[in-house]
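Supplementary Methods. Inverse-folding protocol.

Structures were first reduced to a discrete structure-token string of length 680. This string, shown here, constituted the complete conditioning input.
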């Protein structure tokens, strides 16, 4: 040999040459050929405890071992497989590897080479003769590395929660992972492999444009509407790219997808919440504006109504002047009712419960609906209930029935009919409702709002009272209407039920506990106050017209009056004449020092001083707090002469400590119609 090595197996048994000769080979040529072979070659005993007779140069190049390093099979096993468990595994396969029936099978083992590196070696054994085998070795480490990497990538794609697809340039699917099958509703790859990628999209022309754009630019990202196997549509986020080899040659198109159904629902819900917040902010601003206008207007109405009453006091009511002033008073009281409605819209606070005749509430709602909706829709009343008085908040109930009426209007396409009907129900006799557990047994009034509209589909009836659920288009509703009606009914101890039939219309029935009481009719008295009052009254109001009217009235009643334009003037007046003031009539909204701060300062300086609060706002949370802090009563503007006189008399007659809150006083026409609102 050129390198001086002997071709004959060193230290091998004599029968080796014989075996080779019997195989029809000259041993010199045989081993000489093996030395230059591109694969490792070994001649060894088939016995796992036997000798290794020969290794070629390529074997040494692959493993680093010479025949001197591994003269026996046990020596080879110890060096090549130092891990005992793995060596036991190799020995366990030894019988199969050398079995005549298993010859020529390729096996791959992880071999530890002389330099400590691990290599993947492919072995193939064949029998040279009894007890002797010839083994070929190939270093497949790189091939195995690439195979492992490919397997790792395939396993990663297969286990990915994102749907992954490979497609040829003619749009045929060449690979899909399990997530794609799950997302699109298929069970087996055979259902999709080779199909046109456009088959899986709701808008194939858009999907084709995406594929072309990804091919031209190398990538595309965006949202598309997909179509499942069952035909349902769903949104997906798409990231498509052009796969290339190391030389930059395009190989295929690949894409991954994320189901956007939940995200889109969350975005829609978030948009609803944002819209609700914006709506709430708008309504808050409108409410503040309406409340401010109503407050200022009530101050003006106080002057108008009060002075009209003073003028009428000295006139014959049947005279022309008396009649004209009566019309002024009537208009002023109607305006007071209007401002009461504005304050009801702007109010914030707890529900103000009092006996209310629902028939009066429904008559008002019917009047508003008749003016507010298309004349082709007829609105009528069928007030069949004999008992119609409930304990509740007239403002909330009015808004609830008005809302039901407006919803009924929206359900009618063109011409139709809306009926507001009442009847009495006894749940003791109607056991069905009791069994449902909605209401306790007792006597109720049912208010049914019936329309001849399109009806409500069965699939949305279960959600009809959910907050934010609406079937109206964008900008036409927030979904808070019916949930608000439901909440109003529940807060009044009642219930709200729906009956509907497609094409036949709907009926919303509100059941409320009915009272035996009756609501006395409001009498439009002459507003005159009787003279005979005694005491010193400090009148504090920033509205000059209110001060002049109230001062003239109180002076006419016999009181001594000192007028102040704000809280600072009031404190100064009390300081100039300490102990001489019997009652302070205190407006809440004033410049410099407001009513609340003035009251607290007065209570601190003059602990038992009587104070009567007056405001153009309804009695609300701030007024409630001031009443708890010691104010004697609340006088709501616009007030009439009799209201002012009665409130002053009650305050002067009551104990200075105010053990009991005095009832609210104000214009009767407004007080019966307007629930309490924020103090101001």
């Amino acid at each position: 040999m050129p390198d001086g090595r002997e071709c004959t197996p060193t230290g091998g048994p004599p029968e080796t040459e014989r075996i080779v000769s019997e195989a029809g080979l000259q041993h010199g040529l045989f081993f000489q050929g093996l030395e230059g072979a591109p694969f490792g070659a070994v001649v060894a005993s088939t016995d796992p405890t036997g000798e290794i007779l020969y290794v070629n140069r390529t074997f040494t190049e692959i493993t680093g071992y010479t025949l001197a390093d591994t003269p026996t099979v046990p020596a080879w096993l110890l060096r090549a497989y130092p891990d005992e468990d793995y060596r036991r595994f190799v020995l366990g396969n030894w019988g199969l590897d050398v079995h005549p029936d298993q010859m020529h099978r390729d096996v791959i083992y992880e071999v530890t080479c002389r330099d400590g590196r691990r290599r993947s070696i492919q072995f193939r054994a064949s029998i040279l003769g009894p007890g002797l085998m010839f083994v070929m070795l190939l270093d497949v480490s790189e091939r195995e590395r690439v195979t492992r990497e490919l397997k790792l990538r395939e396993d990663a794609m297969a286990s990915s929660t994102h749907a992954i697809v490979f497609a040829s340039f003619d749009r045929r699917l060449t690979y899909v992972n399990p997530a794609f099958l799950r997302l699109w509703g298929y069970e087996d790859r055979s259902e999709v492999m080779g199909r046109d990628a456009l088959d899986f999209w709701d808008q194939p022309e858009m999907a084709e444009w995406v594929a072309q754009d990804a091919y031209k630019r190398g990538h595309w990202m965006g949202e598309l509407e997909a179509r499942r196997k069952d035909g349902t549509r769903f949104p997906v986020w798409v990231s498509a790219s052009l796969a290339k080899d190391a030389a930059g040659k395009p190989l295929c198109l690949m894409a991954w997808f994320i189901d956007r159904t939940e995200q889109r629902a969350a975005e829609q819900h978030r948009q609803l919440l944002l819209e609700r917040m914006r709506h709430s902010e708008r309504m808050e601003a409108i409410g503040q504006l309406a409340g401010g206008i109503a407050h200022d207007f009530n101050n003006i109405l106080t002057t108008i109504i009060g002075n009209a009453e003073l003028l009428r006091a000295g006139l014959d009511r049947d005279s022309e002047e008396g009649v004209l002033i009566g019309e002024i008073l009537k208009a002023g009281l109607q305006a007071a009712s209007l401002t009461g409605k504005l304050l009801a819209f702007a109010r914030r606070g707890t529900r103000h419960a009092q006996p209310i005749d629902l028939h009066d509430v429904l008559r008002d709602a019917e009047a508003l609906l008749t003016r507010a909706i298309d004349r082709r829709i007829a609105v009528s009343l069928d007030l069949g209930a004999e008992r119609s008085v409930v304990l509740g908040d007239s403002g909330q109930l009015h808004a609830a029935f008005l809302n039901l009426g407006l919803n009924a209007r929206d359900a009618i396409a063109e011409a139709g009919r809306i009926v507001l009907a009442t009847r009495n129900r006894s749940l003791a006799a109607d056991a069905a409702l009791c069994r449902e557990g909605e209401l306790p047994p007792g006597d109720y009034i049912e208010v049914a709002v019936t329309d001849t509209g399109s009806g409500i589909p069965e699939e949305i009836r279960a959600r009809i009272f959910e907050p934010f659920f609406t079937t109206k288009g964008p900008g036409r509703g927030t979904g808070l209407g019916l949930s608000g009606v439901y909440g109003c009914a529940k807060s009044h101890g009642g219930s709200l039920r729906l009956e509907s039939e497609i094409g036949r219309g709907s009926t919303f029935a509100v059941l409320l506990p009915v009272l035996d009481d009756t609501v006395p009719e409001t009498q439009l008295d002459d507003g005159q106050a009787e003279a005979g009052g005694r005491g010193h009254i400090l009148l504090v109001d920033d509205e000059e017209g209110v001060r002049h009217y109230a001062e003239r009235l109180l002076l006419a009643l016999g009181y001594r009056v000192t007028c102040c334009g704000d809280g600072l003037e009031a404190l100064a007046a009390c300081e100039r004449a300490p102990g001489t003031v019997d009652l302070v009539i205190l407006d809440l909204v004033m410049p410099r020092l407001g009513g609340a701060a003035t009251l607290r300062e007065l209570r601190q300086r003059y602990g038992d001083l009587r104070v009567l609060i007056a405001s153009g706002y309804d009695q609300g949370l701030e007024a409630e707090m001031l009443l708890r802090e010691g104010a004697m009563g609340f006088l709501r503007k616009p007030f009439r002469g009799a209201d002012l006189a009665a409130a002053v008399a009650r305050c002067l007659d009551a104990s200075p400590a105010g053990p009991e809150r005095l009832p609210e006083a104000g214009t009767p026409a407004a007080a019966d119609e307007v629930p309490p609102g924020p103090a101001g």
